[in-house]
Amino acid sequence: MYGDEATIRKILTESGDTWAVVGLSTNPSRAAYGVAEVLQRFGKRVVPVHPKAETVHGERGYASLAEIPFPVDVVDVFVNSALAGGVADEAVAKGAKAVWFQLGVVDEEAYARTRAEGLDMVMDRCPAIEIPRLGR
User: Does pTM surpass 0.90?
Assistant: First the structure.
């Protein structure tokens, strides 16, 4: 398991409220769309990152993390595992505090690199599942 309960709690409650969601588009049938809604319900600002740079859930989208003109606290990654490591490296370069790889997204080398840079990281978990559990 990559990301224990303490790390999950820290990312969700202490890392900040600006979440870049990589892979978020206007397609409501995609998991990223629903997860972004949950994050917003829990007070997070969700910034869509997608090649089309679409506005989603009222937030302007950007084609890449580098194009976001303000600080990002957490980078939530909804791309396949083969691309996820590059996104984690971009998150480090952007100055994010944490990286979250969604369910099914696993890259052990990216995890090691990201942690070595001092960022908190979770892999193969979903914040929309974890955040409601914080109250218990």
Answer: yes
pLDDT at 4: 86
Instruction: Specify whether the CB–CB gap between 125 and 100 falls below 8 A.
Output: yes
C-alpha closest to that of 49 among 28, 15, 72, 82:
72
Model pLDDT for residues 89-102, shown as the tens digit of each residue: 999 999 999 999 99
Report CA torsion sign: 104, 124, 106, 37: positive
Distance of alpha carbon 109 from alpha carbon 2, whole angstroms: 12
pLDDT of residue 20: 98
List CB contacts of 20: < 8 A, sequence separation 6 or more.
Answer: 47, 49, 62, 65, 68, 72, 74, 75, 76, 91, 94, 96
The set of long-range contacts for 39-45, using a CB threshold of 8 Å and a minimum separation of 24, is 39/76, 39/127, 39/128, 39/131, 42/131, 42/132, 43/17, 44/17, 44/18, 44/19, 45/17, 45/18, 45/19
Residue whose structure tokens are 């319900």: 41
